[in-house]
Specification:
By secondary structure, the protein is of the alpha+beta class. The chain has helices spanning 9-15, 18-22, 30-50, 105-110, 117-134, 179-183, 196-200; strands spanning 59-60, 66-67, 74-80, 83-89, 94-99, 150-153, 160-166. The relative contact order is 0.18.
């Protein structure tokens, strides 16, 4: 997104798990909408693939990686200024996206990464996607690629770098949605209101061509 819409407060409560909502500390700026967009994609993807209404409770790993208690489908979330990503898979998966921006030369050298913005973030997102798949700490992304890991660059949008890591080479469907479309089912919520889908336990949105 290039312009951030005014999002009703009730949308945050409807979309975000209590643990994630608490971590926003009441702030509602660009960074908080990034989080909201990522979880909006998670809701809509689950409605598409699993016929879910409200999301089942999530649990968080020791490094904060969210997951469903049953472990399937596996998913990964990422967000940066103006963009959010959500990847689904039957196997552990990691996704990361970054807006391209100037890179500090000393930082690039310290991380043993290229200095140029596009090259730096292409390699950085590849590392981060591996770390997110593993569910480890940031130090894990400095370790070499492990046997069975497969990383693919994602052509998400001009001015951004993104990568996905899975356990084996596989076909990847990439679907782009604008922010207002992602959040549309929740944009009219007011405090104390529920959507018809939330009351009935059915999917909260018709997905209008959403495919992955």
């Amino acid at each position: 997104w290039q312009e951030m819409p005014s999002v009703p407060e009730a949308a945050f409560s409807a979309l975000l798990p209590p643990e994630r909502l608490a971590r926003l500390h009441g702030r509602r700026g660009e960074k908080e909408v990034q989080v909201l967009a990522a979880y909006g994609l998670l809701h809509r993807g689950m409605a598409k693939f699993g016929g879910q209404g409200p999301l089942p409770p999530l649990h968080y790993g020791s490094c904060g990686k969210p997951a469903f208690p049953e472990g399937c489908p596996c998913f990964s979330l990422s967000h940066t200024e103006g963009m959010a990503l959500c990847a689904f898979s039957e196997q552990p998966v990691g996704v990361d996206g970054e807006r391209l921006r100037p890179v500090d030369t000393a930082r690039a050298k310290r991380l043993n990464l290229p200095v140029g913005s596009a090259a730096f973030f292409e390699e950085w997102t590849a590392r981060e996607s591996r770390m997110k798949r593993r569910g480890g700490s940031a130090a894990a992304c400095r370790r070499p690629v492990e046997p069975g890991e497969w990383v693919r660059t994602l052509p998400v949008a001009p001015g951004y770098a993104a990568a996905l890591c899975s356990g084996a080479e596989a076909a990847v469907r990439l679907e782009r949605m604008d922010l207002r479309t992602v959040l549309a089912p929740w944009m009219d919520l007011r405090a104390g209101e529920e959507t018809e889908g939330e009351r009935s336990g059915q999917p909260v949105a018709a997905l209008n061509g959403f495919s992955g």
